[in-house]
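Researcher: Final request for today, and then I'll write up notes for the group meeting. The sequence and the SMILES for zinc ion follow.
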Amino acid sequence: MQTLQKSKTFKHFLRMALSLICLFTLLLPNFEPTAKAISQSDIDALQADANKLAAKKKGLQSKLSALSDDKSKVLDKKELLDEQISVLSDQVSNVEDQIADFDHLISQTQTQLDEAKEKEKLQYQLFCKRVRAMEECGTISYWSVLFKANSFTDLLSRLDFVNEIMESDQRVIDDLKKLQDEISAKQNDLKDQKAESESAKADLVAKKSELDTQRKTTVSLMKQIEENEADYKSTLSEIAREEDATNDKIAQMAKELAKQSSAKGTYGGYIWPVTVSKRISSPFGRRTSPGGIGSTNHKGVDICGVGYTTQVLAAKAGTVIISQYSSSYGNYVVINHGGGNATLYAHLSSRKVSVGDTVTQGQVIGITGCTGHSTGPHLHFGITEDGEWVDPLKYLSDYTKAW
Ligand SMILES: [Zn+2]
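Model: Predicted protein-zinc ion complex:
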């Protein structure tokens, strides 16, 4: 998880940079346009850090979308594993049923075998009983029956009689022995099959436990991705909070400046800050933040179709009161027009004016870009009147809706 490590390092860096910017804001003694509490070189140094930060931030955004791709891949894998595991579980329980069936059949053959053995024993006892009629059983000897003959005829008849009994008993006993052999063979066959089923079951159980392990890994990977995602989102929402704070600060500055000057502000009379496009991709007011992150309170309009090289013009003559970088607005410029009236130009790739500069209407103040919290090149343009943000579309004629 190299990316995780990187993102943590980046987060520290981002926090440091954010607090630097906050500190810088606090250090400003007042908002008077001519009072430069901070030198240009300070700003340039900050700018250098800020550019690095901007690049990292863009990386963060793309990482976030890559992460959601990864997450859906991992989720797919987990679902596949779940399916496989469920099939294997079914197979295991099927094999277990087979084993139970074999156990049942084996115990059936055992009963048959016991019965046959019992029959053999009874047949033997019957045989002994019959012989005992002529002589005591125990030391059975057919010969002793024969030796008791009193004549040759008697001997032959005794011989026939003994033969007959012997043959009959032998047949019954042979049959019983054959039956026992058959049952034993059947039982051995069943035992073999049961052993096969048991080894199949062992294979299935091993396979299932392997899949269980894979599933565990997948689940923990998904958890990690979710944690990364949460990290990224919280970093980006920090940036969004900073954007809201910047908006408040600019409005406050315009108000303060209005108080210091006795001149009454006149609103309106703005020209389009770019000449290449009049397409608005995001209007003024509340909006669903792109990707569920960032500020949901849009204090201006987004002019799209401006690329990275379009000149940004002062919408109205005034004095530059802010020209700096922030993690939300990137490079941005604020021009004060007096009476609480100010204009904001954000996400510039470069700024062409400094704090304190007097600008005429239509003067180039920067170049369009995609710095700060921005998913593509556009110009964020905002207007305050009497220190409150107002909808620029009140004044920008002929705009095209692109939202
Ligand atoms: Zn915007």
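Model: The helical segments are 2-27, 40-134, 142-147, 152-260. Residues 2-225 form one domain.
Researcher: Thanks, that's everything.
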